[in-house]
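Page 47, continued from p. 46.
Same chain as before, 345 aa.
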Amino acid sequence: MTLYKANTFGSFAARAAGFSLVELMISITIGMLLIAGMATLVSNNSAHRAELEKSSRQIENGRYAMQILSEDLRHAGYYGEYYDLASVPTTLPNPCSTAVADLTADLPLPIQGYDAPTSVPSPLATCLSDADHVTGTDIVVVRRAGTVVAGSLVAGRTYVQTRSDTIILNDGSATAATWSLKKKDLTTAADIRQFIVHIYFISPCSVPASGTSCTGAADDGGNPIPTLKRLELTDSGGARSMVIVPLVEGIENLQIDYGTDSIGTGAPNHFVMSPADTTAWGNVVAAQVSLVARNVDATTGFTDSKTYDMGLAGAFTPATAVKKYKRHAYTQLVRLENPSARREQ
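Result:
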């Protein structure tokens, strides 16, 4: 009986002795490997999610930029009921001018552009500085009336009142007697719409470090972001003025080919990077828009080795310093509805 109890106790003691040091170290090692694997998995998932978010933002920005440009170009030359446009001016207009006489004279040219200038040409330089323009990217000017009838007129803003053969363009502070046009019933006042001049360009930054113009490496918190912007004809302090408005971040390049109609059919029969003169600009009925959108943030370990087709301008190759950003190219052919429709009659 005593021998049986001793054996039972000894057996229990052997079983309760626990892990040896070797077993404990093996267990810890296995646990650490599992934790490391899980940490790697979580890290990879986080990185993939961040890249997916970057790509989504880039795609959305590119589509939005193309939508803004295409919609504005599509409405170029819309002046309400006004149809009987005068002859085009003999020289290209000054798109920075806010004088009523100049704006009225410029109506026959609903679109004009500057082909990839290395510096902002005169007279555009009076409202757009070289510091705010990415060299080698296109600049395009759109003129039109607002598609929505204006409400209360604002001093310093420009408006148009039209009928088929007459147009009145003036400041919102003009007296009621100025807006004298009537509809076909000869009683009801003709609609008044805001007059729009938009000058689209690519800027090297979104938010300048100081002032209103881009200054360099300090812009955008030390990471300058190329941005689609436009100058808008609007009011500032009650006076007409051209004001810069940021639109879409990450738009790195813009090139536009213009489709001209030299035979009066309303359809383009020739595409050029820049029409030769004002007569040719007056014949523009379509625009082939090409732009490149890049991620706002860089991708670690990525090098962009691709080139991007920019129409007649050829291929765009990103500079070495910015190859760490992923990109996507967008292209769309836009019909200028109003200039082309007038030619189809």
